[in-house]
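In response to reviewer comment 3 from the previous cycle, which asked for concrete evidence that the modeling workflow produces usable outputs, we include below a single protein chain processed end to end. The sequence was submitted unchanged, and the resulting C-alpha cells are shown without manual editing.
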Amino acid sequence: MDREHLALDGLLRELARAPQGDDNAFVAGVVARTRPSSALRHALVAAAGTLIAMGLAWAFAPETPTGRISFSAQACLVPDAVRMRILLKEPASDHPLLLGEAPIDGEVRVPAEAPLLLQAVGRDGMALWTAPTLVRVRRSPPTPGLSLERRSARTVEFVRDVKPILDQHCAGCHAEADLVHSAVKPFEARRSPLVTQAHAPLSTGDRQQLALWVDLGAVGRP
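The workflow returned the following C-alpha cells.
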C-alpha cells in the first residue's frame, strides 16, 4: 500500500471513530493537525533565508588571485621527471602543504604571490629533485586548464598517516624514534631506507604514503 492509500485509510478509520453528527468538527481538527505551527513556519522561513544568503555569499565571493606557472626549465634540469609536485609554504607553519601535481610538460594555475616549493617527481612517485628556493607566481588573467586551489592543500602527518603503518609492520623489530631518525632523509624518499629497504611486506599504497611523507619533509617525526 502506497503512502496516499495509507493516509486515506487512516483518515477513514478516524472518521469511523468520530461521534455521529460531528463530521465538520472532525474534518476541521484533522486539517488543523496537518498544518505546520506558526513557530515551525517561522523556523522554516529563517532556515531558507540562511541557505539563500550562504548561497549568494558563495556565488559572489571574490575569487582568489591566481597565476600561471609552467615547468620547462625544471624539465631540462630533470629529464627523467614526469610530474611536478607543488608544495605550499604557509606563513603560520614551517611545514609544506601538498597543493597538487601537474604534468612536467604542462602548466597550471596556482595561488598568486604564495610561497611555493617545486619537486620533480619520477614514474615511481618519488621526488627526483627539490628546488633549493621558494618561488612566487605573479597574478595573471584567468585561463582554462588545471587549477590548484589553496583550500585543497593538505599535509601528510606522522601521527595520522605514518605511525599506523609503522605500528603494523615495524614496531616488533625497531624502536620507532630510532627508525624514523636513522632511516629517514627529509625531502629525499629515494635515499631513505625506511622507504627503499623496508623488510616488511608493505603494500604499494603504504610505501607510497611513507615516500610522500618523507618527500614533504617528514613532518611530525618523534
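The two ends are 63 Å apart (CA to CA). We consider this sufficient to address the reviewer's concern, and the full set will be provided in the supplementary archive.
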